[in-house]
Amino acid sequence: EQQEQVQLAGILGVHDCNCWDIEPQIVAVIGGDGSILRTCRAMGKQQRPMLGINLGRLGFLADLTPAEFMQSLGEIASRRYRIVDHLMFECRLLRDGHEQLQSLGLNEVSIQAGASLRLIDIELLVDRVPVTTYRCDGLIVSTPIGSTAHSLAAGGPILKQNLQAFVVTPISPHTLSNRPLVDSADSIFEMRVPEVNEGVTLVIDGQIREPLRPGDIVEIRRAEVACQLVRLEGWSYYSTLHRKLGWGSNPVSFDSR
Amino acid sequence: EQQEQVQLAGILGVHDCNCWDIEPQIVAVIGGDGSILRTCRAMGKQQRPMLGINLGRLGFLADLTPAEFMQSLGEIASRRYRIVDHLMFECRLLRDGHEQLQSLGLNEVSIQAGASLRLIDIELLVDRVPVTTYRCDGLIVSTPIGSTAHSLAAGGPILKQNLQAFVVTPISPHTLSNRPLVDSADSIFEMRVPEVNEGVTLVIDGQIREPLRPGDIVEIRRAEVACQLVRLEGWSYYSTLHRKLGWGSNPVSFDSR
Amino acid sequence: EQQEQVQLAGILGVHDCNCWDIEPQIVAVIGGDGSILRTCRAMGKQQRPMLGINLGRLGFLADLTPAEFMQSLGEIASRRYRIVDHLMFECRLLRDGHEQLQSLGLNEVSIQAGASLRLIDIELLVDRVPVTTYRCDGLIVSTPIGSTAHSLAAGGPILKQNLQAFVVTPISPHTLSNRPLVDSADSIFEMRVPEVNEGVTLVIDGQIREPLRPGDIVEIRRAEVACQLVRLEGWSYYSTLHRKLGWGSNPVSFDSR
Amino acid sequence: EQQEQVQLAGILGVHDCNCWDIEPQIVAVIGGDGSILRTCRAMGKQQRPMLGINLGRLGFLADLTPAEFMQSLGEIASRRYRIVDHLMFECRLLRDGHEQLQSLGLNEVSIQAGASLRLIDIELLVDRVPVTTYRCDGLIVSTPIGSTAHSLAAGGPILKQNLQAFVVTPISPHTLSNRPLVDSADSIFEMRVPEVNEGVTLVIDGQIREPLRPGDIVEIRRAEVACQLVRLEGWSYYSTLHRKLGWGSNPVSFDSR
Fold first, then answer.
1. For residue C193, which phi and psi values (nearest 5 degrees)?
2. CATH superfamily, domain at D14-87+225-244
3. How far is it, in rounded angstroms, from Cα B199 to Cα B114?
4. Cβ–Cβ < 8 Å for B150, B229
5. What pLDDT digit, counting tens, does each position of A14-55 carry?
6. Which of B18, B30, B234, C147 is deepest in the core (most CB within 10 A)?
7. Residue ranges per domain, chain B?
8. What confidence tens digit (pLDDT) does each residue in A109-136 have?
9. Residue range A14-87+225-235, CATH number
10. B152, C59: Cβ pair inside 8 Å?
11. With a cut of 0.90, is the ipTM above it?
12. Which of chain A's residues have a Cβ under 8 Å away from the Cβ of B152?
């Protein structure tokens, strides 16, 4: 078997990475899950396979320590890895019939009360069909990758990372039967705020923020590109999940049944 | 446009409907959601499009009143309807390497404490990969159709009816981070009970029950056939959901924000 | 039986009601639950029994229609009512060892992310004992009266209105085992924010708002006074609860068990 | 200061401990939380302060290792401990106007579907006032001590151990607005099953089981006696809670806000 060499093609800051003059086969992202997120969004329509090297505690996406990365250079050189595609979204903010903002993202889009500190009424439509109007502190539309972040904290389910679906999770919904909804990634999700207090904000991947005005429409759909993650042999989503969520331990002590 | 006639091909009890000597274009199911469920399972590998006529309060599946059905005969005759496919599962109980039981189903498979009245330890594997061991009162693997039944009551999300996915929802899990999991319908789900008290029971669609023994393996995968529902013009899943879950009302009265 | 007369002692706006020059036996509050809340806070240490007359849809606190009120004037005149005491809190904001703000309240105290739109780390102490540090979108300390408002939407339990307890409910907690806590109203609750982003806000009864700074301490304890509500014969908390939360209906349609 | 001696008064099995011929000042319970539970129930109306020595992993109640116990003998001899009272309940099963069963308990009373494997309709009354009819897999009435056991797994809040209250937590309630209820320990709680399938079972502290019949009434009220636990210096409920529920860790990894 021919032993290939791993060659460092270049070092880029996050803000340079949508203007490659090289064509890397793998982008090694050094940092944490957040760095993967930023890199992914920054690459825009020119996604490259990313390999996450974690400088802090291990994440869902960046799950190699620097030492493990160094040890796996041989594997990488001989292509003993899989590239796994992950759903990305395209989010558009429509105001008075114009596109006010457009962004790709990997985690989630949310509308949050922000400085208003009040209940928000958010209409949800899927494929132009009205679903319901949430009275809530906020509403999250999340990818599978994002399902273990803000959506999970708000009470949402865990979506297997390769599922082609979005989950809609309300934050503190006042109608108690408003449970998280999972629908196909081929659908178009719209959040509308006909009347909205000052301070209510659109948040994309926790990083892009845009104040909303009455009548604004936020549209989320599958992006044309997918996020690509390099997964070495032996990797499994469920073992990562098990470890990250502490499923090995049993926090309730005392059940006499 | 040629006006076709609706013709009554025959009347069958639920237990006859897997041995058609006729080939009906539509099976009108009279009863409720439960009747649709039974008919669907009884048709086995010879699924026919079902139209549900509800004698009680309207359901998710049987959502026509008798009067609405009579009014829509013209529509039906002229084929102004859609046939919507819904995920069904095949469940197998494996004991000592043999197949102890095999069944199709539409709603969910669950393992429940039953007469044991004790916590159960249930190992979940997806595509042969161990996910976690739940300590719980029970574990549910549900289709999208089933996601608004037992799984919802146990804290699961709502899956759009045409999603190709299963949701795994624990009942009273003792590890508090054990949230519902949504994974692709192309995966194979296994529930294993290496040690199990007497009384623990496998339940399929709430109707088939089989006591479990230590070492039993319950395997759930996508069925080769799909359940077919006739949907008239104007039908929408989300408006049904909205109505059934009372999303128009606001049960929390008093928030001064 | 001596027939007493109901006499109108005066008409006051909410902002006048802590400087009575009369001593009303009952304060009839016209508006809704929010009006009761404002009146209660405005009365401060001179609480009087309130009777809520609801101009909109019926509330938990203001549960008489104008017509019902007119019909019950005889009952009121002959004192055929109970006065029920309800827990109020005193909230103090301590900054650099000084009391920055002090307020009575009836519903809840919360710290919310507000304009920061970020996760907040909030330390909770009860009777000076550290409980945990929540990573969350916010944290609510609620009275029984407030337990059916913001706390309920965030996942909290319902506390019977006359219980002498507070419930601490996190909003979107990132540690999934962070469940709502119920502790005695005789305890002192402290929320501390050693490091806090700009925009994080203290909110009292949804009406008083104060931006927080790093190191701020929010202290909540039982107020010396109690809110007094007039309850006519036949009133019961649980029947109100049943009606307000729609417990008569059954929103999940389709369980074949 | 006079140095007292610790003297072993005797060794008793659980079933002997309601017929003391000695009067121990402290009952050292060797085992785990379950052993405390059994001992407490067995002592009946002659409660003695218990000190839990844990042979397995530490519990909420039995939280001394054998080594810690040996080290604390001096403390115990010189009475450097507190005795903390905990709410116990008395449960009565009424059938056809007769008392079919009566038991003290420390954790919880529940009605569970058991072998019926079906939804149960359970009416709840508090102080003879109807609250609601739950359609559910079961219903739990729990003490503060029991609130971290089955009730927590079913979605209930955590009640501080010395609170004088019960929490009512439904298991998989089909009405999604059926949230856990916390009410005063001075109230009388009744669960009624006018129609009930065979197999539905009353369970007390996970240990006493009694099949229910249609028309049965289960009544729960505060016991006349309280469970007494010996707490050494430095003990705090919240630090135990923090440790047992893993609140120091943060299981959600990846929130980019």
1. -125, 85
2. Probable inorganic polyphosphate/atp-NAD kinase; domain 1 (3.40.50.10330)
3. 5
4. no
5. 666 555 666 778 899 988 888 888 889 888 888 999 999 988
6. C147
7. 14-87+225-236, 89-222
8. 999 999 999 999 999 999 999 999 999 9
9. 3.40.50.10330
10. no
11. yes
12. 179
